[in-house]
Amino acid sequence: MTDHLKDIDGNPVTPNLPIALLAEITHRCPLACPYCSNPIELTRAAQEMPPEDWARAFRQAADLGVLQVHISGGEPGARRDLAQIVASARDAGLYVNLITSGIGITQARLQELDRAGVDHVQLSLQGIRPDMADRISGHPGSWDKKMQFARWLNEIGFPLTVNAVVHRQNMDRLPDMIALAETLDARRIEVATVQFHGWANLNRAALMPSREQAATARRIVDAARLHLRGRMVIDYVPADHHAAYPKACMGGWGTLGLNIAPDGTVLPCHAAQTIPGLRFDNIRDRPLRDIWVQSQAFNAFRGTDWMPEPCQSCDRKTVDFGGCRCQAMALAGDARATDPVCSKSPLHADLAAKAQADALSTPGDFTYRRMQRGG
Ligand code: SF4
Ligand code: FES
Prior knowledge:
Blueprint: E1 20-24, H1 51-64, E2 68-72, H2 82-91, E3 95-100, H3 107-116, E4 120-125, H4 130-137, H5 142-156, E5 160-166, H6 174-183, E6 188-193, H7 204-207, H8 211-227, E7 233-237, E8 257-260, E9 266-267, H9 288-294, H10 296-299, H11 325-332, H12 348-360
Parallel strand pairs: 1-2, 1-8, 2-3, 3-4, 4-5, 5-6, 6-7
Antiparallel strand pairs: 8-9
The chain binds iron/sulfur cluster (SF4) and FE2/S2 (inorganic) cluster.
């Protein structure tokens, strides 16, 4: 692992500049989703960065070339100073996307967020009916609150993307989920098959879709894309455990985007802290440009030089960048390994068989993510 990207002669090379920032302004959340991908150890409220520090981070991000900020959590509405944080992102010249569960944000606050500069809203949905949505979110009444929130979004005129995490217990209702997004006047639906980072890994068997479910979901998405062309866009993250190749996680490590955790820790991806040996900097201690260009963590898996075989000689190495480093860490015990969801990984066959066995097992109860309210 190097402290700086070098060319073949050993000279420092400036990497691509990022275009997107995920600002996780809090880990607090009123929901208890079993597929939460936030770390097992959450940042407490007392450690969250104040709005002045977020404002400085947004200015530095804009100077670095970042165009859009995704303000997320946890539930960003858990912060009473959310509008102030949004306004500072807008002042920095960033396009502001708010990613929310819709729980805990009143109509008046939503209007305040509109004035503060939110450009676009992503609303998460856990199901297509009250019973399913409330059971999966672990929050009684969540469905009614989300539907009310969606009506307010429409009244104000926010462009809307619906976020739907799909898994073995709701994947068969994917056509209904897409239809629901249409009735909510969403411009886009992001259908993401559950990823087993953080808390989600505790619910692996209860959430893992089967190979057949994944294949059916792919056909449904393809057909719906044709049917909805020109009306609604469908982004789809397929079930990688049943795929031949992994996804290009983060579009390549240290290539397109970065995350800032609630306490100001700057991360190449949201699960990067699961990788031992990486040294992470804090935006309060070091300028963002230095962190992006020079830090050990961001240079650890940049480019392709770090890749072992079979990735090193594979013609897809600049397509998927060897897959997800955090998944390689979790499944192979080595962040440099080929992502085991890749069919060229020696671990793939066992992994796919285990995934299918999980998917066909009797689903146990969810282990819900309950978190401290005040931190
Ligand atoms: Fe991607 Fe590596 Fe698999 Fe090739 S061997 S497809 S680069 S993960
Ligand atoms: Fe960290 Fe994929 S989540 S590289």
